TrEMBL record:
Pfam entry (one): Methyltransf_19
The protein's name in its UniProt record: SAM-dependent methyltransferase
A single BP term in Gene Ontology: methylation
GO terms, molecular function: methyltransferase activity
Classification via InterPro entries: SAM-dependent_MTases_sf, SAM_dep_MeTrfase_SAV2177_type
Enzyme Commission numbers on file: 2.1.1.-
UniProt keyword list: Methyltransferase, Transferase
Top-level division of the source organism's lineage: Bacteria
Top EC class for this record: transferase
Species per Swiss-Prot/TrEMBL record: Phytohabitans maris
Length: 270
């Protein structure tokens, strides 16, 4: 996330290819094409220490697909607030939601100039009766996120609030929990929290994240499942609970799926 802005209030869109960029590195791990040599080098260096990162990226996207599909179909959710969206890739939130419910309204939130540029070009509505919008706001300021989202979403009706692998960029545990709690306080009963984050469950990933701090990209904190679970306090966590994202309601036809070092859950606000 970035706070850079130009004098007219619009974010800079100049792309700096001299240092790795966390969103572009994730795009690379996810199989996307919106990355540069410097990102691939940093991504490969990370993967040399923690090879499981490629599978984690794949399984995180599959978790998003399954969670959003469940919410739009079984739970009847028609509003999605995807905070810290990152670079568009395959099966973005609006594509999944509007495939399941054509009238779904999706608001993406990020304040990274690079993400903003791509989002405006690629995150477009897929149905005639749905809405896809982008809010330029910083997740560190949840009240602003909510205020901007309110211009597009009806916050008297249930909303699925999504933090997909982004809260590791918040260094302080208390701040992380506060961000989630303040957004969830602004949405009504019947809303949902969908969240996953990278964990400290692998020594290799812990070492890779330490080395990652030296690349120039925004550092990422791997937390324990217990630390992540505190973001769900006061909510009703759906089965199977907080689990490796690959184990959250996997496709039964997929066979046995190995656990990954990223934990996630879906929870309902009572």
């Amino acid at each position: 996330m970035s706070d850079r802005s130009s004098t007219d209030g619009e974010p800079y869109t100049k792309i700096d290819t001299s240092v790795p960029h966390s969103a572009r590195i994730w795009n690379y791990w996810s199989g996307g094409k919106d990355n540069y040599a410097v990102d691939r080098e940093a991504g490969d260096a990370f993967a040399a220490t923690f090879p499981g990162v490629f599978d984690l990226a794949k399984q995180a996207r599959q978790f998003l697909i399954r969670a959003v599909t469940y919410l739009a179909t079984d739970a009847g959710i028609r509003q999605f607030l995807d905070i810290g969206t990152g670079l568009p890739t395959l099966e973005n939130t609006h594509e999944v939601a509007q495939r399941a419910a054509s009238d779904a309204r999706i608001v993406y939130v990020d304040n990274d100039p690079l993400v903003l540029t791509h989002a405006r070009a690629l995150l477009t509505n897929t149905t005639d009766d749905g809405v896809t919008a982008y809010v330029n706001a910083d997740l560190h300021h949840p009240e602003q996120v909510v205020a901007d989202a309110r211009n597009i979403l009806n916050l008297t009706q249930p909303v699925a609030v999504m933090f997909m692998g982004v809260l590791g960029h918040v260094a302080d545990d208390d701040e992380m929990r506060s961000i989630v709690a303040r957004v969830m306080a602004a949405v009504p009963s019947g809303s949902y929290l969908v969240m996953w984050d990278g964990t400290s469950t692998s020594d290799d990933q812990v070492r890779a994240l330490e080395d990652y701090k030296d690349t120039g990209a925004v550092p990422y904190i791997g937390r324990s499942p217990e630390q992540i679970a505190r973001c769900f306090e006061g909510l009703e966590i759906l089965e199977p609970g907080l689990v490796p994202v690959s184990h959250w309601r996997p496709d039964p036809d997929a066979g046995t799926v190995a656990p990954v070092d990223g934990y996630g859950a879906v929870a309902r606000k009572p």
